Amino acid sequence: MTTLLSAVGFVLVFEGLVFALLPSRLESLIETLSRFSTDARRGLGLGALALGVLLLWLSGGGGL
Predict the structure, then answer these.
(1) Which residues are listed as membrane-spanning (predicted)?
(2) Which of 18, 52, 63, 64 matches a 20 to 30 Å C-alpha distance to 28?
(3) What one-character DSSP code corresponds to residue 63?
(4) Is 64 a domain residue?
(5) pTM value?
(6) Local structure of 22: helix, strand or coil
């Protein structure tokens, strides 16, 4: 449970930094992503998910 809370905390810190430091860039990114098809966005999400799992596996963390 501690690991899960730590992971959620890291995600929130990273997301908060993006919103706090780069709000106009974030708006531009959202606009760009809205031009992609649903399938392309899904593929991007699945690719990010796969990369995250790979990084967790390589680091020996996440209980994978």
Answers:
(1) 44-63
(2) 52
(3) T
(4) no
(5) 0.67
(6) coil
pLDDT band (50, 70, 90) for residue 49: very high
CB–CB of 56/62 below 8 Å? yes
Q: What is the rounded CA–CA span in Å between residue 45 and residue 29? A: 14
Say if CB 44 and CB 34 are below 8 A apart: no
Residues 44 and 35: beta-carbon distance below 8 Å: no
- Three-state SS for 32-63 is HHHCCCHHHHHHHHHHHHHHHHHHHHHHCCCC
The token duo for 24 is 């106009």
- Write down the pLDDT at residue 13: 95
Q: Give the helix/strand (H/E) hosting 64.
A: none
Number of domains in the chain: 1
